[in-house]
Amino acid sequence: MLVALLLACAPELVVPPVDPAAPTVEVTAPSAPATAPSAPPEDRVPAMPAGASLYALDLPLLTHTGAAARLDVQRGHPVLLSMFYTTCPMACPLLIADLQGLEAALSPEARAELRIVLVSLDPAHDDPAALGGVVEKHNLDARWTLGAVPEDSVREVAAALGVRYRPLPGGGFAHTAALTLIDADGRVVARSEGEEGRAALVAAIGDLAGRQPGVTGGR
């Protein structure tokens, strides 16, 4: 299940109640349980609004293959984006499993068009070898790109994707599992932070795939 709001990737984390003033997104989910932590004030940055292009950020992206690409590495396709880090013991593997489940709910045409990009919260440690290990462990195919932006750009990407996070004292991060769907030109189409938003997200992906040249019956 896609976990709404901040996910504690360290099992021992004790977290306070979620802040009801946190920003909402287009595809919403039920309120998080009282044990979900609120983001620190400095991380409460409004997500990029629907219709804006993520590719305006024009950031370098070092991918799991070692390629020096850019954030628009999958330009021309509908793309699902989120953030993770390779040493995350629980939340990030669950995020990947849920993305694979979402893929399975798509039509073959939509699945063939969709690309998935996961950007690291921890570029200081997530080099191509570490990123590639996650690709291998989870059997991710060529439609997936795992990458790292420069360390000083992580907050900018997180704000654009509506991901809230905070470093944990013992290492690792607490973070949201927000998914952002963009179209072929990087414009934000939909977001989801919970299981209830999955059906709407699947439908939006199908709609985008149906508009791609040479694709019919996107759903």
Task: List low-confidence stretches.
Answer: 1-8, 10-45, 214-219
Strand content: 15-25%
CATH topology label:
Glutaredoxin
What is the chain-wise order of helices and strands?
Answer: EEEEHHEHEHEEEEH
> What's the overall geometry?
globular
Strands of the largest sheet, in order across it? Answer: 3-2-6-5-4-9-10
Figure out the total of helices: 5
Mind describing the biggest β-sheet? 7 strands, mixed
- Rounded to an integer in angstroms, the radius of gyration calculated over CA atoms is 16 Å
Helicity range? 10-25%
Question: How far is the first residue's CA from the last residue's CA?
Answer: 22 Å
Count of DSSP strands: 10
CATH class value: Alpha Beta
Fourth CATH level, the homologous superfamily: Glutaredoxin
Structurally, the number of domains stands at 1
Q: Quickly give the CATH architecture.
A: 3-Layer(aba) Sandwich
User: Helix/strand-derived class?
Assistant: alpha+beta
Q: What's the average pLDDT?
A: 80
